[in-house]
Design a protein that fits this description.
With about 100 residues, the chain is mostly helical. It has one domain (about 20-95): 3-Layer(aba) Sandwich (Rossmann fold), CATH 3.40.50. The protein contains 4 helices and 2 strands, in the order αβααβα. The chain has helices spanning about 20-30, 45-50, 60-65, 80-95; strands at about 30-35, 70. A two-stranded parallel ribbon has the order 1-2. The chain is elongated.
Amino acid sequence: MKFPVIVGTVEEEDTPNFEAVLKKLQERKYKHVHMYPLMVVAGDHANNDMYSDEEDSWKTQIEALGIKTTGHLCGLGRSKAIQAIYIQHVLRVLSLED
């Protein structure tokens, strides 16, 4: 069973880069993808590189393949679960300082 998630990086020299993401989308014959930025804050990369109307954005290039996209441009930092993890780490560090 394939997990229906593909993760890619916005930097071309990193892997899996966007070219690899496009290849996987085509191999799996997806008709619709939901795009979530795996970033604490959904800032410039999410808004411009991933989901803008510019010709080089992920959204535009994916839609050019005939695949519908839905953007969920909310950073992980807005998640209560992620916030709890950050708080745990801070509390652990503070307890080590005593």
